[in-house]
Design brief:
By secondary structure, the protein is mainly α. The protein contains two helices and no strands. It has one domain (1-59). The model has no long low-confidence stretch (mean pLDDT 82).
């Protein structure tokens, strides 16, 4: 009976070590997005703000 218990314990030990050694590593995170350049939209807003300020100062 003791021999059977030792055999069962040994088999369970082997199975748990095999299962824990097959853990899948986490996936690699995606690369960060590229930096966005300042394009025409920002320049257009800046120009319209300057023009608006100029007209406000001129009308006062």
């Amino acid at each position: 009976m003791k021999k059977r218990n030792y055999l069962a314990f040994f088999i369970m030990l082997i199975f748990t070590s095999v299962m824990s050694s097959q853990v899948v590593p986490p996936p690699v995170p995606p690369p960060p997005p590229p930096g966005l350049p300042i394009d025409g939209g920002i320049a257009l807003l800046l120009f319209s703000g300057i023009l608006y300020g100029y007209r406000k100062l001129k009308s006062s």
